[in-house]
Model the fold of this input.
Amino acid sequence: MKKMVLIILVLLILAACQPGTNAQQAQLAIKCETLYRTSTVSSDEPLSTSSVFELRHDQKKFSETYTDMEIMAQYYQDDYEGRSMRVSISDPVSGRQLASFLYQFPLDEQPVNQFVGGHGFTGLVYIYHPESPAELQFFCELQ
Done:
């Protein structure tokens, strides 16, 4: 009988140590803004294209293709790995990856926007194409 009580107690402790369910996890809404410039050679050239998009538990993927770069953002959430967002920038012609960023969030609490000036939790990120004068900027913030 003591063994049975001990086994049940161990099982209860193990169950309590498991990651939370989706209902217990704080839901995230992420807003990102991209700014693309075809050339950084002239300082007078304005940012030519901008996009604003949101990632949520029900809208998990976004991509936008510009002349020399493509940005793809994807939101992941599961009980074991937790919540994360990956942003990848690639060359749209060759498919070669130019940069990749992984942002991981706590499973059971809301993360915070840590950068002042409205640049959210990523800060303002600049990516330059290695073979053209193109520039892509992005930042993401929690809503």
Observations:
- Residues 4-25 have pLDDT under 50 and may be disordered.
- The chain has one helix and eight strands.
